[in-house]
Amino acid sequence: MEQFISLTLGGVVNGSVYAAFALALVLIWRSTRIVNFAQGSMAAATTFIAVAVIDAGGSYWLALVVALLSGLVMGALIERVVIRPVEGGPELNAVIVTLGLFVAIQGIVALVAGVDERAFVPPFSTVGYEVREGFTLLSLSRNSIWTVGAVLVTMLALIALFRFTRLGLAMRASAFGQEVARLLGVRVGRMLTLGWALAAAVGALAGMLIAGDVSFIGPTFMDTLIVFGFVAAVLGGLDSPIGAVVGGLLLGLALNYVRGYLDDSLLGMAALVILVVVLLVRPGGLFSTTAARRA
């Protein structure tokens, strides 16, 4: 029973990390209808910027703010300079460009910061809470609570943005029908740029949370999380922030049970099986709607 409780709590924490990355994918999909495969390398770049701030004597919280602002600027620049020229063409063009960006940004990070792993100190203690003598919940610490809380707050903020603000409505209109949105007075170009900027900022937050969870970072430290985050987004539904969080939590629980009761080497296979089953049974994800699929 104690093992099950520990695995469950660990799954929730790991799932929150996957959910953070999935939220960035959902945000850019809802605002631009593009799956950004470069999201992981962009998050890694902003995390290394945050590390530079910490190395210069800044606090974690200052580094977090700098990472978020760096993400905003990076996302806006990438949309304007790299993505905008191919947005009017076939949808596959933008996807191929994001794959190229993934390789390019990762190479730039390795060139500037080096390929060696660097320690990353999380903002809170990673020591698990002791329930009773001899039984410590290793997966439940102050840092894990911060991770879960940050993801939930981000999810609520995105839901509020898209459901209750004119800005969110304009972003969704620009993604679904640019010509109609322009006729209604929406500045489509600005909305697409804003979508990329906000998604990159959420990705920067995900990078900081993941770095605090793994404690060591390198140019490729986001690679595994890219796969799991994508599976979480598809599992919950690319149109749903709630789905991204639920998908991340479900995936985190499933993979942690596989890790605890079977073997670590089966994690990749388990994620693939979950992805295939979801695509076969409910291609739009658990939180998809008829309207979203028709769009």
Considering the chains and any ligands shown, give keywords for the structure.
single chain, about 300 residues, mainly alpha, two-stranded antiparallel sheet, two-stranded antiparallel ribbon, 12 helices, globular, disordered C terminus, amino-acid transport, cell membrane, transmembrane, ABC_transp_permease, membrane
- Portion in strands: under 5%
- Rounded to an integer in angstroms, the radius of gyration calculated over CA atoms is 19 Å
From the N-terminal CA to the C-terminal CA, the straight-line distance is: 46 Å
Structural domains: how many: 2
How many β-strand stretches? 4
Query: What does the largest sheet look like?
Result: 2 strands, antiparallel
Q: Fraction of residues in helices?
A: over 70%
Widest sheet: strand ordering: 1-4
Order of helices and strands: HHHHEEEHHHHEHHHH
Overall average pLDDT: 86
Backbone structural class: mainly alpha
Summarize the structure.
The protein has 295 residues and is mainly α. It contains 12 helices and 4 strands.
